[in-house]
Structures are given as C-alpha cells and as structure tokens.
Design goal:
The chain is α+β, with helices and mostly antiparallel strands. It is built from 28 helices and 33 strands. Strand 2, helix 2 and strand 3 form a beta-alpha-beta unit. Helix 27 packs across helix 28.
C-alpha cells in the first residue's frame, strides 16, 4: 500500500491545479460519452476542453452525416466512455469522428467484471469475499445439492455485470434457488452466503505507476421505494471515517488499493469501483466495476472540495502519462456528504413525461423548478436537489434507470438496506409525476402494505374513458387536452426560467438528428400527447443554439416573452386570419391597432400605415415591390436600385425576386464609418442618369447587422427628394431605438422615408416570426397587391357579403403577398398590454447601455482593441496582445477565440469581417444579460487569446 493511502480519513489524488495544467498541455478536447452528462458536468470548474456527447451502449448510435469518412485519430482529442465494454457504440463514435478512446483493455475488463472470475482477482489481491460456490451451466444437480444448511440466506448471481439488478437475487432456501436455476439455464451462477452488513463502494483509479484511491460511499441497494429488484443499485452517499464503525473506512481503502494493483499489473488503466459488504466487522468484496460508476459525479464534488483533480481527469492522465504526478492526500471536507438516488422503473411501463434536467427546490411536498444555477451538487442549498432525467419518453422495462437525483446531504441512515429519510421520499414524490408513479415506485401505508388507492383511481379512470363517447376524427377529449395543455405550459415555463443542461452554443450533427427524428410516416397515432411533447422538445427543439441565453451575444438574438408565447397559441386555436374582414374582422382590428401603437412608439406621423409580415426579408421585398410598381412603368432593363455593401443580404434577394439583374443593384462602398456615403450616392445617381439609366430607389440601413452602423438617413432623404427616388429604410434591427430618448432624434428622418422595415422579433423582444412594413403612403400597398388589379376570376375571394359591407372594412390580404395570414400582431399586442411600452423602452436602453459598458471594458484592457464603437447595442473588437509582430495571424486568432468561447459551453461569441479583417462581434440586446455576463465573456476572450498567442 502506498504511503499516501495508509492515511485513514484522507482522500487521495493529485493536486487539482497541477493536474489541470498537465491536461491543458496534453489535450485539446476530452469528450465524455454517456446518455447522462452528470459526470462531465460535475467536473468543476468546467475546463474549456471538456464536453459531453450523448453516446452510450443503451441507446442507438446517431447515424454519421452522409459521405463522412472515418477520421484519423488525433492524439490530442480523446474521449472517455461510461461503459466502453458494453457494445461498440463508443468505439464506433471515436473511430468515426477521429478521437482516441481512453478505455482499458477489453480482456482485462471482461475478466474483472465477471462476478465469478472476479473471485480469483480478489484472491490474488488478498481481499476476503463471502463464502461461495459456483453452480455450473450444464449437468446441474437439483437445488438441494448446492444449498448449504449452514447459510440462513444466500445470494444467487449471474456472472454478467451491470444487469440493473436482474442478475442478483436473495434466496431463502432450495426452492428459491431452484427458481433461479430455472430462470437462468445454460449459464454458471455464483451462490454466496448473504452478508447482512452495510454496503460500501470505493472509487479508485489504476494509473500507470500506482493505484489512486479516492472517496468511499455508502451504497444503497434494492430500496423498495426506487427499484424493481432486490439487487438493483439505488444510489450512494459519501461517507468519511467518522461516519462508519471503527476501521471500516481504512479497510475499504486498503481493499481498493490491493485490487487496483492487481488490475494494474494485468494492464488495466483508468477508473474503477469496488463494492464491499460488512460482516462481523470485516469488509468482504462483492464485485468490481472496471469502469465509471454514477457515483463518480459525487466523488468529483468531494475531490473538488479537497483541492484534488476530479477522477475523470485522473483517468485521462492514466492513459497519457508514463507516471502520474506526485500524490496528494487531503482530509475529506466536513460538508462533503453529498448523496444521490437512482430511480428505476418498477414494472414494464410507458414513460409519458419526466421533469427536465435541472436544479429544483422543495417546500414541504411541493417541488418547483428547474431553477437557475449550475448543475453541481456541491453548490445546491439544503432545500434543493439536482434532477438528471435519464429515460426518454416511451416504453421502459422493469429495472431500467429513469433518473438520477442528487442531494447536498444524506438521504438515508448509515445502515444495511435502509429506508429513505422522509425528506428524500418527499423529493421522489414531488419529482415523479403522479400519473407515472405506479410504474416508477410503490406507495406504502404506515404498516408497510401497498395502498390500493392509486390502482383504484387508475381503474376508475379507465372505466370513465371507456364510457366516454369517442371524440370526432382529429379531436381529443377535454381531459386529454387539459393534461397536454398543462404539460405544454410546464415545458414553456421550464424553457423560459432555466438555462437547461446544454451549452448555449449547441450544434448537433445532421446524422445525430436524423437518427433521433427520421422515422416512417406514423399511420397510427398515440394517446400519449404529453410524451410526444417531451420527445420533440428534448430531441428537436432543444437541439439548437440558445439565442435567448444571457451569454449569447451572436447575431441579433431574439429573446421572446411569455405573453407572446400564449398569444401565438391562442391565435392558432382561434384559426385567426387577418386577411379578409369577412372571416377575420377581430384579428384584423387587433393588427390595425397594434400597427398604430407601433407608429406611436416610433414617433411616425398618423398617416403612415402597413401590415405585419414574417420578418425583415419579406418586409424589404414588400416595400421594394411597391417602389417598383409606383415608380417604374412595366419592365425596365435600365432600372437601378442603390444600397451600400453593408446592407442586409435580403436586399439583394428582394431585387432578384423583383426581376432585377445583378447589374441593376448598385452596391456602393461605405464611408469611413461603414455608412452609406450620401455624396458618393448622389454622384453615382447623376452618372447613371447621364448614361441613360433609370434610378428608382435607395435602401438606407438603420442598424447594419455587422456593426450597427446607421446610414445618414436625412442626407440620403435629401438626395432621394432631389432625384425623385423612393427611400426605403431597413430598420429591422435599429428602428426600435427611435422609441427611446437616445434615439428620439431619428424620428423626423424616419418620417421622411417612403417605407420602413421594423422587426419586432429583434429589439422588441418578440418570438419568431414577426416583421413589419410601414409606408408613408399606405394606399400604395393595395395598388400593388390587391387581387382586383389582375384579370383573374375573383369570385372565390369576393363572395356575397352576409351583411352589407361597410366602407371602412379593411382586407389586409390586399396589402401584401399573403392571402392566408397568421395573426402575428397578437403577440406584440399582448406583450405591450402586459408590460407597457415603458418597459420596452427601458429594455432597449438597457441593451445600448450594456454595449457601451462592454466597449469601455475593451478599451481599458491592454490586450483588446475596439474596432467599431458601440452602435445600436453592437460593437466589434479584436484580441491584440502588446508586442504582437506584424506577421502574427490576427484573423486566425479571432476565429480561434470564437471557436473556443463557444466550445467552452458558457457563451456564444462569433466573428464578422470589418474592412477585410476578422473581428469579434457582440450584440447586447438581451434584457437578461448583465455586466457580469459581458465581463465573463471578455475574460474568456483574453484567456483563449493568450492561448492563440502562445501558439
């Protein structure tokens, strides 16, 4: 035994800082492969090189993208699997994506995991085991021949490991043993004397030169509240030397060290667990788990509290180094008594819904969440727990793991096979939905008998369902709709109140999504709509970059709001179509009212009007179509449209859709401020006129997407007035600032524009999709889009009116390119009514203030360079260390920084190009973003910039 491991009461490892420095020099990336990210998430503080992929032997491996060839392994990119010995998924994934799988030798793993051959391992290590005998697979005698009358009880075990409890059975006599022989024919069995004492698990790591023994935990086995079988693993709780009877803690560590040395001598490397049971004051070995165990996430918390490198990092170093760094022994911190429970399915059942992964709080039996905060058990409060959903919606088998629940303190007494403490039972009752409870856990009365209430209620529900009239085709009964509706609201609230387990920058591969979502046409439906909602939420909707994350500073991120979400659902339910007044009078009036509010917000004259469309691209197309029809008489091969190189790409798309060639869109270089150069515009228009061309419209931008630049709208308006041209202002992002004190001066200029694009799903915080067209002469819209202008049969769209139509009726389908139009206005209407326009003004101001604060931090930092000043909450900057030589590839450095920030999992920061140079771009419009979020991201920029600088 090593000198370090002799210290009773310590937790052994290597110093965290030293280990992290080593790892940073050895690897570019470590990928944790498992269906649950608990182990990688518990590695604190989270290193930039560590991430999670949901790859395990128990779920189908996502299909790789078409044409993807296996990549050559990169020695600096490694992956670690929870249980690589189960199936080929981990190895296949590593081979496909070019990672080195750090897995122990499969032969040694199989030898150690086998419960029968492991007895030889224990004998070689000098670790005692309960008395046992092996029953052969063939030529068996009757059970009586194997039963020892000296054993009051025995444990029958199959050789195979990790059977989720189905391979271990407690037997009381020959009849019980015979049942096992009948159930498990043609395979050898181990029959051991039952040891009634406490069960312990020791986590250790077999390194290249020594075995490192980490934490000890109390193993919770076969808890009736959680498991389907007597032998199922139900959780662990960390223990210290003072928590156990005398010398048991030291015995456990010594046994793990001896077993690890035997494993190491046979070529095994990496993390393993040793399960022990106490009998008469002495620990006896039960089995070895030559792989990671779920308890490792708890062990990480203890190691972090003791200043030691987490076991996952130690596992990586064991494969990459010829010898581990010097050992460190620390006292187990007094507060490191975290625990976890594994919830199993008690029967074959169908999981409809489980709470989303996250942090939860309990008040009595009421559980609320998910809450904000990192998914780290060491940072949970006494009334909080971490819930890791493991199972997916759909069928599950008895014994299958459904969820992992982690707690800051103990959940059971330190006894053999204890009952859960009342608080832990309340947690399980609160987290497991009522309708799932029968399949997941039994309820007992004070006498320990199973109550019949839940079963009776289920039967009554079934009876009531049978008596109900079947709903019409494509309809559901009221109870099912209420259940699904409540569940949907729960999903929405969870989305809007928590960040979830995924990083904000999340870009799954096409192959993974095809594997998860591609399926044949479902000819037959299901009654489990909540389960379908969970499935599509988890497997599709959540598989995307989170634009509303407070540390997402990319693009022009939409944030949405809860009233707007409700508005979209309500409008869909009412099939609201603000197209023809005949079918959508109320929705049409909502749109007209909301348009008037938006004009007031922006300070536009009363005479302006328009309609809501899908977004800025359609708005630009709509406005330019009106300009073409109003100013050009038929096809004009000599027509010219003008914008700067900084205009949005949708301007070029609109020109194409309107029949203009590339030569007819004149793109001018910007001035030094990246704005449309009004003097150059006037000069070019004059030159084109002299050449016999037909200028007809100019697009100015109020808030370019790259830098937030604002074109000189007043000066451009002067040019357009002098030349008789249409002025369209693309204010998709920036127009909202006119509703604030800082943007008040823009109002008169906007009033001069012939048309204006506004995107409420940008800086007015609406969910997608809602854009807006506003015209100084709104009567031109029906002149362009009205169906009566075409020589087509309009009878279908102009039926006899049931009542005498009023002259004030408005048919918005004549004002734009869509006949069937959704009620996009309702979300903005309900948001403004709920929060008030003042809240929106303050939110816009807050985003602009935050950009100015960010610019100040950049300018004050010696390694950062402000490229473009903050404009409309957008700024650009670069990492530029002092003394950088002229040959230093600054563009590549910015790209490297962006990739590393996104891969870190904590933020989204992308690049753009300014005057030919690659720069970092930050857009700070999210009202939940704070100065701390900005500082966090800038710290990442400097950290990864120095990394690039060293390279």
């Amino acid at each position: 035994m090593s000198p370090v491991s002799r210290a009773v009461g310590d937790i052994e490892g290597i110093d965290a800082k030293a280990g992290l420095r080593l790892l940073a020099g050895l690897v570019d990336e470590v990928v944790w492969l498992d269906h649950c990210p608990a182990v990688s998430a518990s590695f604190q503080p989270p290193p930039a090189w560590l991430r999670h992929e949901p790859v395990s032997a128990w779920q189908p491996l996502p299909e790789p993208p078409p044409g993807l060839r296996p990549c050559p392994p990169d020695p600096r990119r490694v992956c670690v699997s929870f249980a690589p010995e189960h199936g080929d998924n981990a190895r296949t994934w590593a081979r496909t994506h070019g990672y080195r799988l750090l897995a122990p030798d499969s032969g040694v793993t199989a030898w150690a995991a086998d419960k029968i051959s492991a007895t030889r391992l224990f004998a070689e290590a000098g670790v005692p085991v309960p008395p046992f005998l092996v029953i052969p697979a063939t030529d068996r005698e009757p059970a009586e021949a194997y039963w020892s009358g000296r054993w009051p009880r025995a444990v029958a075990q199959r050789a195979e490991n990790n059977l989720i409890g189905r391979g271990t059975v407690l037997v009381d006599g020959p009849s019980g043993l015979q049942a096992c022989l009948d159930a498990w024919p043609d395979e050898p069995l181990k029959l051991s004397r039952f040891a009634p004492g406490i069960s312990l698990t020791v986590t250790a790591c077999a390194g290249p030169d020594r075995t490192v023994v980490s934490a000890v935990s109390h193993q919770l086995v076969g808890l009736p509240e959680l498991a389907a079988s007597w032998g199922a693993h139900c959780g662990n709780q960390l223990v210290g030397p003072d928590d156990l009877p005398e010398e048991l803690y030291g015995q456990a560590r010594a046994a793990a060290h001896r077993v690890g040395e035997v494993l190491r001598g046979r070529g095994f490397r990496g993390a393993f667990g040793l399960d022990l049971v106490e009998e008469d004051g002495r620990l006896r070995a039960v089995e070895v788990n030559p792989r990671f165990q779920t308890v490792v996430s708890l062990v990480h918390a203890a190691e972090g509290a003791a200043g030691l490198l987490p076991t996952l990092g130690l596992h990586v170093l064991s494969f990459l180094l010829p010898a581990l760094p010097p050992p460190a022994a620390r006292q187990l911190p007094p507060g490191a008594r975290h625990s976890q429970l594994v919830v199993h399915a008690r029967t074959d059942t169908v999981v409809r819904r489980l709470p989303p992964t996250g942090r939860y709080r309990r008040d009595g039996r009421a559980v609320s969440g998910p809450l904000h905060g990192p998914p780290v058990v060491s940072r949970t409060a006494g009334d909080e727990a971490l819930w890791w959903a493991v199972a997916r919606s759909g069928p599950v088998t008895a014994g299958q793991e459904l969820a992992l629940v982690q707690f800051p303190g103990p959940v059971a007494a330190l006894q053999p096979r204890p009952r859960l403490l009342p608080g832990a039972s309340a947690w399980i009752a609160g987290l497991v939905p009522d309708e799932e409870a029968q399949g997941l856990r039994p309820e007992k009365d004070d006498g320990g008998r199973h109550t019949e209430d839940a079963e009776a209620e289920a039967e009554a529900d079934a009876d009531r369902s049978a008596e109900e009239e079947p709903p019409p085709l494509l309809r559901m009964n009221e109870r099912a709709m209420r259940e699904a509706g409540r569940h949907t609201v729960d999903l929405v609230i969870a989305r809007m109140t928590t960040h979830g387990p995924r990083p904000p920058c999340h870009v799954p591969s096409p192959g993974a999504l095809r594997a998860a979502l591609d399926e044949p046409l479902p000819e037959h439906g299901t009654r489990d709509l909540p389960g379908l909602l969970d499935h599509v939420t988890e497997r599709a909707l959540a598989e995307a970059t989170r634009l509303d994350h407070p540390r997402c500073f990319a693009f022009v991120p939409s944030t949405g709001n809860f009233p707007a979400v409700l508005a979209d659902a309500l409008a869909s339910a009412y099939l609201s179509v603000p197209g023809a007044w005949l079918v959508g009078a109320g929705p049409t009036q909502i749109e007209l009212t909301t348009l008037r509010w938006l004009k007031t917000f922006l300070g536009l004259p009363d005479g302006h009007g328009g309609l809501f469309v899908s977004g800025g691209s359609t708005a630009n197309l709509t406005c330019l179509a009106v300009a073409r029809d109003h100013l050009l008489d038929g096809p004009q091969p000599h027509a010219r449209l003008y914008c700067s190189t900084q205009a949005h790409p949708s301007v070029a798309q609109a020109a194409h859709l309107l029949g203009l060639t590339r030569e007819q869109l004149t793109v001018l270089p910007p001035d030094d401020g990246l704005r449309l150069d009004a003097d150059a515009l006037a000069e070019r228009i004059g030159r084109d006129r002299r050449a016999g061309l037909r200028p007809f419209a100019v697009v100015a931008t109020l808030g370019t997407t790259g830098t937030g630049a604002v074109d000189p709208i007043d000066r451009v308006a002067d040019v357009c007035r002098e030349e008789g041209l249409w002025l369209h202002v693309d204010g998709a992002h920036g127009a909202a600032v006119a509703g604030t004190a800082r943007g008040h001066q823009l109002r008169s200029a906007l009033g001069r524009a012939d048309s204006l694009t506004v995107d409420p799903h940008k800086w007015l915080f609406q969910p997608y999709e809602i854009g807006c067209v506003l015209l100084r002469r709104p009567e031109l819209l029906p002149e362009t889009f009205g169906v009566t202008r075409h020589a087509l049969d309009q009878g279908y769209l102009r039926p006899a009116h049931p009542a005498a139509p009023g002259c004030e009726e408005v048919n918005l389908s004549d004002h734009g390119p869509q006949q069937s139009r959704g009620l996009r206005a309702l979300k903005l209407w309900l948001s403004l009514k709920t929060f008030g326009a003042g809240a929106f003004r303050r939110a816009v101001e807050q985003g602009a203030d935050l950009a100015e604060h960010a610019a100040g931090l950049v300018e004050a930092h010696p390694e950062l360079e402000l490229v473009t000043p903050p404009s409309l909450a957008i700024l650009t900057f670069r990492y530029r260390p002092r003394g950088a030589p002229a040959a230093w590839d600054a563009d590549a450095a910015q790209a490297h920084i962006s990739r590393r920030v996104c891969a870190d999992g904590g933020a989204v920061l992308l690049t753009t190009t300014v005057r030919g140079a690659t720069v970092l771009r930050m857009c700070t419009i999210n009202p939940t973003s704070t100065r701390a979020d900005v500082a966090y991201v800038l710290d990442l920029v400097t950290r990864y910039g120095r990394e690039a600088w060293r390279v």
